[in-house]
UniProtKB/TrEMBL annotation:
Name this polypeptide is given: 1,4-alpha-glucan branching protein
A family per Pfam: Mak_N_cap
Organism: Streptomyces griseoincarnatus
Keywords from the UniProt entry: ATP-binding, Kinase, Nucleotide-binding, Transferase
Domain Maltokinase N-terminal cap: from-to ranges: 20-107
Disordered: annotated span: 155-203
Lineage: Bacteria, Bacillati, Actinomycetota, Actinomycetes, Kitasatosporales
Superkingdom of this protein's organism: Bacteria
InterPro entries documented for this protein: Mak_N_cap
Amino acid sequence: MSVIHRTTLEPAKLELLTGWLPTRPWYRGGPQEPKLSKAGGFRLDDPEGEVGVEFMVVRDESGDTPVDYLVPLTYRAAPLDGAGTALVGTAEHGVLGRRWVYDACHDPVAVAELAALVEGRAEPQAQSVSHTPDREVSRALAGEGPVPAEFPAVEDTEEHTELTAPDGTVLRVLRTPHPAPDGAPQAEPGTAGHVTGAWDAPDGTRVQGLMVLLLTPPPAP
């Protein structure tokens, strides 16, 4: 299970994201610098214990209306081959040393664990507490699967990031999650699975909403 080190990270995660978020097509802020705070999230375990995987919800309050963003990140001890365009930045960890921080949608370890989460084979972990499952994260899958482990095609749109497997299955990462109106998130019609999570609203209340959708290709005629 995830081990959380109580130490420093320089620059801090939010500092790295302040420069990176405005470069994303799904960023909705204006020309001003983002004003970010952490609102919630969860972690996933790398079975090999080498890569840190975090699904972070950050809030930008630089505009007239706060906007929440889902930012999956991975933390590595060395550069990830072929993922230079997905690099968010580097930072010095007080215990682990130099960390390369990536957009996790481009990291095969994170994507495989996300697929395992949807399928029910991976257990979400608390964002800031070691060895503690996150009971606010839920998942669902229509049928028994399996869900592909590899989603090599990655496309950012103005709303989300789509990860596509060779068989056409898609994991859709909802980059601007919204609280479910009744507190009980429901997947969109036609989806084959989903992941929901919780975060703090601007008024301090705890809300839940969809974070990831699984879409399967239509059956061959």
